[in-house]
Protein 1
Amino acid sequence: MLAQIILTHWQGPIKVKAGRKFTIKIPFEANPGASIRWIRDDGANGARTIPSEFKIYSSSDSTSLYVSSPELDDSGSYSIQLLDGNYRDFVKLHLLVVNVPGPPLEPTILQVVSNTVELQWKPPRSDSNSAITGYLVEKRDERSDDWFVVYDRVRQSCCSICSLVVGNNYFFRIKAINDVGVGVPVEVGPVCIPKPAPVDLSLYAPQLSNWAEMIPPQERPQKPEFTTPLNTRTLVVGYSGTLTCAIRGFPRPTIRWFKNSIEVTTHPRFRASWGQGIIQLEILRSSLSDAGTYTCFAQNAFGEAAVTADVFVRQPTIMNCSKI
């Protein structure tokens, strides 16, 4: 019988997760007494024996390699050599041990502008043999132990984190992602979101009799004033709803939302937005616990204002249709 190794289902690299046991079984055909050997090929460094942690089991028609806890360094090219008298056969396999990536490097706060933080970092020192596909970015208020996802996958190694609460301190952490999963985090902080500096009224001192006309209306000092109030809303369990109001004021007021006197501006169950003077709070997939009194609070250097409305939540109506 001509000695030969039968390799039918191992095509391309054999990919395994670090720390997870695996077995590679290679069938072969040979006469009784044939010998088989596993060798690790290190390229320019030549061949070397299989580590003692690797267990090899061979029978008359197959050979198996068992590894209980593979490591990243076990990745490489392996040869199986079959010797049957004067006949020889061999096959090469490439083992790729992968894992979640290491922590990103050098997280840096580039700048803090108003209630927005510019964050930057460098890729991990090791991607654990699996290419980085993105980054998970989270934030945490210094007064809480709970982390909230800001971005579940950022492609580049920088991002802007908006709508932070003025006067609060925040921590941020970044985790690299590859095909294996989410990696080890790196943390930066605390970062203080500063309160706006008081406006120097002398900047607006009249130099001419018509000085007010020299300043555009939208840039004249003005305390916050709600031009459209909040309206009472009734939501249905499982459906999202939005509270809306309108405001004016200069400098641009800081907006905070409260439910029953507890701030929810950055809570993941709510989505706050503001543009063109329109302020909105979206209640995501409402539940009965979302019912309560909601307050929109606005503040700038010239004063503050607030509007309040009640939100009710009811169960969906179930209609029973009888056959006629």
Note: The domain at 220-314 is CATH 2.60.40.10 (Immunoglobulin-like).
Protein 2
Amino acid sequence: MITTPLQKACFALLCLFVFTGINAQSNFKPGYVVTLMGDTLKGDIDNRSEKYNTLVCDFRNANSDATTSYHPDELKSYHIENGKYYVSYNRYDEVKDKVFLEYVYEGDLSIFYYTKDAEEHYFVAKDTTFVELIHKNVINGLAKKSERYKIQLRYLLKDHPAILDKIDRTKCYKSDLTDLAKAYQKLSSPSEAGKQFNSPRNKTITVNYGAYIAAGPSTIKTAERQIGSSDYNVDANLDFDKTVTYEVGAIVNFNLNFIGENKYAVLFTPSLNIAEYESDKERTLSPLRYIYKANVKFVTLKLPLSFKYSFYSSEWPVIPYFKLGGGAALYLSQKGEYNYRSTPLNNSSPSNDNVYNESLDSKGTTLKAILSAGAGIDFKTGKNLFTLGVNIEHGDTQFTGTRTDFMLQAGFIFK
């Protein structure tokens, strides 16, 4: 049942996420396609994930709003302005899959790439040679890493022995192969520059914004009651049950591109949190039974700052991550009541006479430190990210004790 204002806000935000996720799939950018007849058509191209771009080119003509979906056997190539360049498999007999290959680097040594069914394929071209690099062997049905591609590269580039040491240090990734091709270009044609078609690495700090909702179990652990503690001391007589807490928040994502693009970030995620706890505790000390009850509702502004590391690969549609950090929890309001009473053990029903009642309402604000840790997965939806993960926060409470929230989070980061 959706009853509280915060629950209603979470539900509304969830609906927004679903709507945004559906519409975030499209990401049209200026570009052009080259037909099988050699005609160049200018317009907009839907730049989605690499897996999608390998299979389909969604093109929108400059003079029309209609979208045409081209498959690899229907085009020679397509190019996204200031971005990636794809060529059809039908230009090369060595390519067995019907795909668009990403033209990564053009020069005296050219680099091509595509991924299909979770398999990565890398090709190099030099003069009239076009060959796939062997970076995996299949043994008993299992794919294992292989360095045979280094033998292939050493043979192809043997005309410049100075490059051989760099080949030994080269991994079979787009970034490493591009660096190798650039180094070879300087040796073979120092007066002619090669061309890298994907956008150059951003080495600045960029900021993205988003929003999220979260919910999960929350516990407050109070100190054990000490002998001689007063029955009127609220802190000494609480034993809160586990409850469900809700929050809605914003995401400010500072990408530390100078360390590693799309991998390192600092997250500031302010949120409004609501949680309501109940405590019902009894102690028996003949001839009396002592009953302590309390309920309290907190509205808290959380201000965590986290360091996030993403296991990013431009080829993957999903990006695992983990984060660690800390911050502050500002308790904006506290409402509740503490009730203590005692009743003789020989009574069949407890007395309704209250011995002591105390309001737990507090209008003041209190700042408490918190620690946080989390992990999850970011899903590529066009250029935006749908993020899903878990987060644990731990810190002091208004009472003498600690609070731990274990939250399931879902949100969007907009780019």
Note: Confidence is low (pLDDT under 50) at residues 17-24.
Protein 3
Amino acid sequence: MDSKSKINIVVIAKANSDKDAAFYELLLKHDSFMRSKAYVYMVSSVDDFANLLGNVRIDFSFILFIHKGNRASNPSSDGNSIVKSLKKLLYYDKLAYYMLSRDAVGQDIDAMDFLDEEYKYDQFILNNVGALLEIEEKDAGINKIEHFDFAILTALDKDENDVFRANLQEESQTIIDLQTVKGAFKKHSSFNDYKDNFIVAKQQEMGMVDAAFSSSKLVHNYKLDYLIMSGVCGGRKSKVKMFDIIIPKKVYDFSFGSLEDGKFLQRDLDAKIDDKLISYLNTTERIKKIKAGMLALVDTLNNTWEPYVRNVEIHFDVMACGPWVVKTEDFLETLSQEKNNLIRGLEMESYSIGRAYELFQDNNLKTLVVKSVMDYTDTKKGDEFNGVPVNKLAGYMSYLCVRAIMPMLIEYRDQFHKQK
């Protein structure tokens, strides 16, 4: 094994206890020693493991670990259950795997060793997908890509991604990797919800670079109808209120340009969202329907936020996008006036989502950005607004809007296909 190249590691782990989850979060955080040497894929069942193998390239090679889940009351119950399910796979006899535990006994692999910077992975046997599934290069077309109507992408974990994950049915959630889960929304009695499984993903870092990478990864790994960016943004104080929703029809990269004689000259660089989709959503009737859906979805734990949801406005306008957080008086106001006075918000990712729509036309991918105003890009940024936690409510507001829009997007897609 080439020690200079990263390997692939697949871990089947139910991680039922809080201690298990906390341990793996520590082990697999982006700056861990393990992540510096390996791409790590965590799945919670053998079905999801088999599905993973069906969605990767046939030259994908990996080390397989099974988390034993030792409990004082029922030692290695998880590991035994996982192995029992593995034995049902047609390729089980060709599969090399290793039992993993924090309380290793016998031939178990001690998971605590993974925290060691000098730990060597070349002691383990690699599995190869092509060999396991007996797929030749010429037959690779049978390695089908899973289809989802939606993938939701967020730049941040806290307050943006976690609100989606908290509202997925626990039994439907499947961890695909450290950044990605799939699942279905918890059932809601007063809203005609989107009911199927969908993807929820998060970037490793904020910004356009990670947004571009994450978007490309999602489009490569899945057949998607919609890629939606959910999250928070800065707003133009003269045009929007705190917690309003901005759904851009165009995104302007204000950092693009040239440096001439020591002076930065901005150049126009725009990315469009599907005009027909925006026109479909941006009607009085549908905006009213989206807002009614958002109100219906407010849960009892957050009902003190209902007045903000009731007062929200949805703006279909232009978003500015750049590589830095802005805390400068009048910056956004001046920028907008220089761009035909149309900009309503500013953030750091949406240009990549607009470009994904433009670049993946062959995939029939449609993209949407749904962001809630959390500040006015000035020096008065704060953690609270009238006693309300700003980031948390803004992230929640975006989640409500995305969830309320999803059934409408299915209607649009079905109408679009009929017209074609």
Note: The longest helix spans residues 390-419.
Protein 4
Amino acid sequence: MSAHSSRLLVFAVRTVHCQSSGAQPLRLAPLARAYSIDSPTLTGGSQKPQAIQKLEKLSNSHNLTHRNLSAVASSLKGQCRPLSRFDFLDVGAVEENIKKALSCRGLRRFIVNPDIASLIADHLDSDLSENRAVIFECNPGPGVLTRTLLNSGAQRVVALESEKTFLPDLQALESRLDGQLEVVHCDFFKLDPIGKGPMKPPAMYTEKLFNHLGITEVPWTADVPVKVIGIFSQRNERNMLWKLVYALYERLSVFRYGRVELVMFISEKEYTKLTANPGDLRQYQALGVLWQMACDIQLLHKEPWSSFVTTSKHGGPAIPRSMFTNDHLCLVRMTPRRDLFTDSLTTSNSATLVMMIKQCLAKRKAKLVDRLNSWSPGSGQKLLKQLELPEDIFTGHVYPEEYKQLFQAMEHSEEFLQSWLYEEILENTQNTGFQ
């Protein structure tokens, strides 16, 4: 039996009990979409809301097992306290959550629609119910997604909120629970800033955050220890993707603690670039190659910009301009690969790989052999023959996995030892501030 059917049965049983005892039944929050009402992605036309369809389906089901949300949670290396919730949390009225979201002063997007929150929880359902990872929620704001995750069975949610305005309500919710929610005044996107010394929240070092939460390092090949959920800020979306990919390849910042998975909304234009194929010389770029090489990238859902509450100086959805299609925010799962690191690709030389990819794809119509010969004259042809690649192949036609194989071959080649990229690597390392 699915986790969703079980949860709905619990709701139905509690409702019948309340009616028989004279108590007031739990009221469902309105499911009507405040934004993009005619969007076909979730509900539309004369279709019934998803939650109502599930309740009707449930009424015809028999012999279903009761799922007790107050069951003692399996331990997470001794870090997770037991649950003690008997009632589902009310996500609140959409109008009230919109009002709370609009109190934010900076440019930011919020999830206030219960349908979108439920959709995200659906994609994490097996992970939530089986307690596979700690959930980091970036900038929860009014807490609609926070409550939905908890209602879906999340054993441990860490709400990283950067705005002080939203902290009191989130902390009040935390105090009502028994350890499955922890609220931290922290901005995930400001973790590990360049430089050293003391700093004030919401900026923070990853080491301090993880120590505070009691999360320890695990081997790279272990299961995902943390899942990060949120919306990338459009102000520095691409810069943040670069910062994260540098950290991933060197196992710094959050990736020091294992294969941290990202489940994030990113702009459609950036998703298109991240997943572009070789030969698409306009979209196929170094950042996308590095992410494809490092992670399994899965598109979970597309949602129109208008479905999110946006706070901006000029009002409206504040959609960034683009030469390419950019009508949606894309919910994308990026899971680091277990086999990313090998004997030839390690955290010690991964910065060299990153710089190699950036230099090769700076000119995507250039011949790869010419780039290789510029690093080690006369070696390009030998390497391409070894990898069975055409001698006249463009750099923009090489697959991510082929770039990885090329790098590993160069690492084993005596002709490339001590002969390339070191000045660029040194400069890049000095400009990357992770703790």
Note: The longest strand covers residues 295-304.
